[in-house]
Amino acid sequence: MVEENLSFRNGNPGAVQFGNFINYYQFNSPEKRISLLPKDIWSESIEENRKWEILDIGCNTGDLTVALYDFFTNILGITDCKVIGIDIDPQLIQRAIEKNKSNNISFNCVDIMDSMNYQTIIKYLKDNDLERFDLVTCFSITMWIHLNHGDLGLKSFLNNVSKISNFLIIEPQPWKCYKAAVKRMKLSDYIFPEFKKLAIQQNVEDEIEKIILDECNLVKLKESQKTDWGRKILFFKRKN
After folding, report:
1. Where is the signal peptide (predicted)?
2. Is there a smaller number of Cβ atoms within 10 Å at the N or the C end of the chain?
């Protein structure tokens, strides 16, 4: 990943190629996301004295990662829980590390779309005698993967994260968000090369759900009401 590709363009903090906004949680608070997480879908999988491992993909500066840890430990009562936050942007990860006060939360700079980086995640699971993470979360990152890697990249991402998940949370951006992102970047003299090639467009949220259900060996448990940003959070679980 070329470092300059991660910077915002022409002095506009909203013009970022990978969704790595420098002030993201100032306008999209973790608390609102957490308030939409159900409490009734996890009970059968929460076993006494069993450690839970959670992977938060696209964690930015880690505010939501920390809130997820608090939810599963303080609200659901999982006494042994570890959360790993990963993001493509090393500067955001450094800020997350500097703010982190828990030994049970860690942050790493990882590009989930890079095959070698993905293999480091697989290695982590093997080294810790884990088949999968108990939960993988993907909040508002599918659009950025789609815009930068195309339809095939999106499908590959969904298949790869499903392989390492017992539970999966996806918050896909609707098509109107794509158009807004493309417009912001165009004003800053950048065109997403994959955008005009995308076959998955207007119904992107439904298509993401369909891919997960048809190809990824997961079942849908629930979806949230729409967030303030007009997005719904989808909850999936591995088939028995």
Report:
1. none
2. C
